Amino acid sequence: MKKAFSFCLTFLILGCVLAFAGGGRDTGTQDGTVTIEFFQQKGEEAPQRAYQAVIDMFHREYPQFRIQQNTVPDAPQVLTSRFVANDIPPLFSDFPTQLQFKEKIANGFIYDLTGQDFLTRINQSALDLIRIDGRYYAMPLTNNFMGVYYNIDIFNAHGISIPTTWEEFIAVCRRLQANGVQPLIFSFMNPGRAGHMFQAWSAALTPDGYRRLIAVMEGRGTIANDPVMLGMTQRVLEMVSFGNDDAFSIGDMDGMWDGFAHGRAAMMLMGSYARGTLFISNPNINLGVFPLPGDTDAGTSIIAGVDAALSISSRANAREREAALAYLEFLSRAENAQLFCDIEGAPNAVSSVVYPDPGMLPILEKMRRGPVIDWFTAYFPGNVTTAINSEIQRFLLDKNPAQFLTLLQQAIIDESR
């Protein structure tokens, strides 16, 4: 853990230094209008549209405030750099269960929202996930998950029911393939996306897989030649064998997502962040999502947690903070949160939001009853997560389980020193 500790210490020193630098900006104009940047980290088209739709309505009610949505490539890295440079956006989206978010809080970079009335509109289960030392530093907006998207029309055409065990799932893949239908579509071009899929595989097929990786990171365990992990990786390769041959040459949004949306494959293992963009690509798709099954329905875990959450910089001046708080209150209202959910597509954390899509019920019910595992970024520092993703991408290319586990173990050890 030496490297992770060193990073935290560096962040802490920078925080102490920058605390005296001041962060106030005069963002007002002569007519009294206050303009603030909203640094939004979700790169998919659907959330960008959803935020902008609410922002446009917000401007009509609050003409004295202007919210400028800013979304850039590699947003997490860019935001971290801006924190270090004391150029913190007044309002930003973040991922409050991740270790990096807790570091920002420890360094005093994030405004404490505890006691704000709009938090009473948020599901308590979402608030419980992000509470740190009894305080709230973000307003949860959406929940996320990893699941199997499926084309309901294709399933119905072939008389296929949703599988609830791994054996049933593989039988569905074989049946589709025998009937000339591509069972699955993947994109492994982006190591981060491949890493998300690995998290879903490990949760369903090895529910304690992340604990085994934590043990390696903490120097008290091994995964090389681990028969449980070997069995999981062999099942991964079995599932991938029902996918597309061009998985390393197509992107996610312009390849995998668009291909699935237009019937290239019957299923796709992906996160909740894809749903809204799929409907933008094909508004007529008959879409459903179910949990990736393990050996038994009750024993299968899924990856799920808080996704989009909005925070305010502690460096924001009084006028910026007033505008940001007004926007969070506005976004949490029932009608505005519903509009956001209808466009963005992910489960919403505002308790009044109605999610009418019956195709989502299997995954939402699984999220309710569990078991649920948080994303790896809740357990591993960023450098360790990046190393895990890179080794997963290499494994999916080389298809050598034993070599993968040896290399993965060493990569975790190296990044934890």
How would the blueprint of this fold be written?
Blueprint: H1 2-18, E1 34-39, H2 45-61, E2 65-70, H3 75-84, E3 91-94, H4 99-106, H5 124-130, E4 139-140, E5 143-151, H6 152-157, H7 166-178, H8 191-205, H9 209-217, H10 227-240, H11 252-261, E6 267-271, H12 275-281, E7 287-290, E8 302-306, E9 309-312, H13 318-331, H14 334-344, H15 361-369, E10 372-373, H16 382-398, H17 401-416
Parallel strand pairs: 1-2, 1-3, 8-10
Antiparallel strand pairs: 3-9, 4-9, 5-6, 5-7, 5-8
Helix pairs in contact: 2-14, 8-16, 11-12, 16-17
CATH topology of the largest domain: D-Maltodextrin-Binding Protein, domain 2
By CATH, the architecture of the largest domain is named 3-Layer(aba) Sandwich
Percent of residues in helical segments?
40-55%
The pLDDT mean sits at 91
| Spatial strand order of the main sheet | 2-1-3-9-4
Give the CA-CA distance, first to last residue: 5 Å
Total domain modules: 2
CATH superfamily of the largest domain: Periplasmic binding protein-like II
Output the number of helix runs: 17
Note the main sheet.
Answer: 5 strands, mixed
